[in-house]
Amino acid sequence: MMKKSLLWLACTCALFASDTELEQLKKQMAQLQQQLSEMQKHIQTLESAPSVTVSDTGSDEEMLEKMASKSEKPSVTTLLPDIALILNGGYTSRNVTNTQYTNASIPGFVNSGDMEIPFNSKNGFNLNYAEVAMSSTVDPYFDANAIFHIHGDGTLEVEEAFFSTRALDYGLRAKVGKFKSAFGRVNEKHHHAWNFEDQELVNNALFGPDGLGGEGAQLQWVAPTPFYLMAGIELFNGNQKQGFSGKESATTAVSYLKTSTDVGNATLLGGISYAQGNSEVQNLNSTGDIIPDSFTSYGKTKIYGADFTLEYPLEGYGSLIWQNELMYRTKDVATMTQKQAGYYSELLYRIDENWATGIRYDELYKNQNEILSVNDLHRTSVKLEYKPFEFSRFRLQYNQDHSRYIDDQAKTIHELMLNYTLELGAHGAHAF
Amino acid sequence: MKKILLVLLYSIPIFASMHVTAAYPYIGELVKAIAHDKAQVNVIASASSDPHFVVPRPSYIGMLRESDLLIINGGGLEIGWIPPLLNQAHNPKIIQGAAGYLDLSSYVKLIDKPASLSRAQGDVHAEGNPHYLFDPYNIPQLAKVIMFKLSTMDPAHKSEYHANYDVFAKHWENKLGQWEKTMAPCRNTQAVQYHELFSYFLKRYGIRTVATIEPLPGISPSSKHTLDIINQIRTDKIGIVLQDDYHEPKTAQFIAAKSGARTIMLSHDVGGQNDTLDKLFDTMVEQTCQR
Ligand SMILES: [Zn+2]
Q1: What's the gap in Å between B197 CA and the centre of ligand 1?
Q2: Is A312 helix (H, G, I), strand (E, B) or coil?
Q3: For A223-283, where are the E strands, in sequence order?
């Protein structure tokens, strides 16, 4: 503004000035301009210098308080819980009908008719869920979380709802409510955080689609070691779908130890887990066959788990992850103690911030049970992921599935799934 | 078992010195400048990775478990990775709101706070631009905050912290004078940057950011947007394109080749060749304003 009017003034003056006067004027103008730009510089410096000037009196604590920029007052809305909405769905194509697929069995693990398929159950379009997740700090002592799934058919499911402590000493934290167990590597993760569109086969066969967990309590301890070492114990109500007895006073206990260390750029992560609870020993009829849904006494179900992950960061946003998990279960039933085991191994390659790919091999390699001993249950999966942005993901996955029987016959299922996952609202921060 | 016990014993500090965890290397440098050997400093992020997306590692949990003080950049920069780490570290001394939780962004004025918020605008920084570290005039202010914090938590070494701060502040004032001189000829010029990462630096020295290579924060470059920038550089005679070292540099190099502008690769934190705060800014100044 000032510059402009000065220029105008200079111009009008110049009309009436002689040549020598003009030279002089030009000189003066240049000087003026220089002064002006120096002034501007000064103003800019003043403007952007830290606005707080502090008188050097008061204790250190008071000084800190004085220095805090007081420009913004927190609004009341910051006291509302963080809310996130996650949409997941897609299009699925299989070489079997919907009825065949839902009535399939995994011999020795899941009987025909007992299979629960919460995600991508139909040929064609599936809306798997709209997940509503809320979390907040309750007070200085507690945090609380609640996660609901509203499924495409309108049913509502409480995935998790729990509170946890903030202020326990000695590296302890307690959690109470309904939640997923931290048994193994993937059990605790929610569907949208899974590496593939479907659950690892051994987790599905042993614990069912919701994984190990339920209403219960947890205590975790982080050791004061220079490397990561964490131990935890959990108690849950027994649940038949998870391979235990769901009868009264049947409790499932879980414990685990996890550790990690960095070797150069790579991160190694390993853990051992153990779960123990009651199994149901059914009645036999006069010919020695099991009477379904009958119950005489409790036996034991024991599950041993081990997991190992190697993570290697690549240039930019890329990374290479090799993840493995092994589980072994013994379960007392009417005529015998079942011995079953399975594992998975997956290799994930994140190419950049937009693209990722991966391959997974699942196998149930030991399957001694009283119904039908089949030992070649396995599945191979490949995926390709595209993330246009941090909060949206499209995933194409192909499975060649040799783990299911249809009408008591082994059947190779080919499935192709194209899925979307969209995250809205509060920043979803993911653990490693 | 014996081994575990030994490890446990080792980790109990014999000399009670403060354990400080810094979210970013530059914070670690400031703590070292103020505390010297009176505090043990651990740094989480590195200069080679995107400060917005630090990959959480379990080893950081061990670090946080043992900390008396956690110092973060704040302004939402760590929102994607600090909360889950804190949640798993089980250390009440350093959780948000505790005395051992220091958010440096509450002591500086953030620029470019968006008037309205929508993710249609990309991954906008809701609280304003959190990359305030690049205004060198903020650095002594941050050092001062850290000095007061350390003095409050560890009053036994208060006089040392104050004395170290004085030395640091004086040294920095000298540097500010030098940089002011070097940057002076570049005042009132224009620049393109990948993300609004160096905005504080450019603003400080009177260089205007006219475009970013990412069409929206967090969105990869598109060919149309890239061509628009090339045209803008040609018509407005823009001299420099600032490129960070974690995004792909190809787009910036392409823009430079087509438009004649100069691409400058800049570190976004202390590390690698720029292993001190001085060098970080020295390089930035030298590279940005070559006359
Ligand atoms: Zn940013």
Answers
A1: 6
A2: strand
A3: 228-237, 251-263, 266-281
Minimum mean pLDDT range among A298-312, A397-411, B108-122, B141-155: B108-122
Q: Which residue of A has its CA nearest to B148?
A: A60
- What is the residue type of A343? Y
CA distance A107 to chain B (A): 38
Asked if A284 and A338 touch (Cβ cutoff 8 Å), the reply is: no
Tell the CATH superfamily of the A90-127+158-425 domain: Porin (2.40.160.10)
From the list B65, B83, B184, the residue facing A222 with the nearest CB is B65
Complex confidence, ipTM: 0.84
The model carries a pTM of 0.85
Quick one: how many helices (H) and strands (E) in chain A? 5, 18
SS3 per-residue string spanning A172-238: EEEEEEEEECCCCCCCCCCHHHCCCCCCCHHHHHHHCCCCCEEEEEEEEEECCCCCEEEEEEEEEEC
What would the mean pLDDT of A304-313 be, rounded to a whole number? 97
Q: Select from B19, B50, B57, B222 the residue whose CB has the most chain A CBs within 10 Å, as the one to mutate to test that interface.
A: B57
Residues of A (269-328) whose Cβ lies below 8 Å from B: 269, 311, 313, 316-317, 319
- Count Cβ atoms below 10 Å from residue A129 Cβ, excluding itself: 23
In chain B, the residue whose alpha carbon lies closest to the alpha carbon of A61 is B152
Helix (H) or strand (E) holding B82: helix B82-89
Exposure b/e, A140-159, CB count within 10 A at least 16 = b: eeebbbbbbbeeeeeeeeeb
Residue B194 Cα, ligand 1 centroid: separation in angstroms?
10
The encoded tokens of residue B154 equal 């560890």
Do B84 and A431 make contact, defined as CB atoms within 8 angstroms?
yes
Q: How far is the CA of A67 from the centre of ligand 1 (A)?
A: 24
CA B132, B133, B138, B143 torsion: positive or negative? Answer: positive
Asked if B111 and B125 touch (Cβ cutoff 8 Å), the reply is no
Q: What is the CATH number of domain B16-176?
A: 3.40.50.1980
Q: Tell me if the domain spanning B180-288 has CATH number 3.40.50.10490.
A: no
